[in-house]
Amino acid sequence: MRRPERTTEKFMARSPAAHRVLLGVMLALAALPAAAAGACTIADLAFLLGDWRSDDGATTGEEHWVLTAANTLAGSSWEARGNSLSFMETLSVLPQNERIELHLRHFDGALNHAWEERDAPMVFALAQCDGQGAVFDGTGARAGERIAYRRSAQGLTFIGDFLHQGKPVHVEVNMRKAGG
Hints:
By secondary structure, the chain is α+β, with helices and mostly antiparallel strands. The protein is built from two helices and ten strands, in the order ααββββββββββ. It has helices at 4-14, 16-31; strands spanning 50-55, 59-67, 73-81, 84-96, 99-108, 122-129, 133-138, 146-152, 155-164, 167-177. A ten-stranded antiparallel β-barrel has the order 1-2-3-4-5-6-7-8-9-10. A hairpin with a 3-residue loop joins strand 1 and strand 2 (59-67). It is globular and about 45 Å long.
């Protein structure tokens, strides 16, 4: 029985083209960002921590992130239009299923009704991070959706690409430090 590594060694010895292909693959892998999802940790998401506020004149909102004693991130947010609280949201970022996941749930402003099913929060898996930004890809019923956060000198930007009744919905919110 032939050992696969011997077959590969013989192929490589006989084929200069194989050397070029292998070199190309190695260069492509070296060019990948250093913080692919598997390398990201909760600490890499520290750029989220703090109190963030958005106000575009018609809509005001806040998002708050803390590091918990369990080394997870806990977040909350709200949005108001005029004198009406539109919604509230609770979020957690934690290691689960051998990856880092963002779990979130929405509620109406009075907390009377959850938008999601009782035992089915929205779940997004961390796809990439770089210390100043992160991208989470939707899982399960949320496949094809994406949430991204990006920190800059001006503040924190939330970008959400969702599917509502099969139609794409793009949400972008620019926030600055609350109180600043």
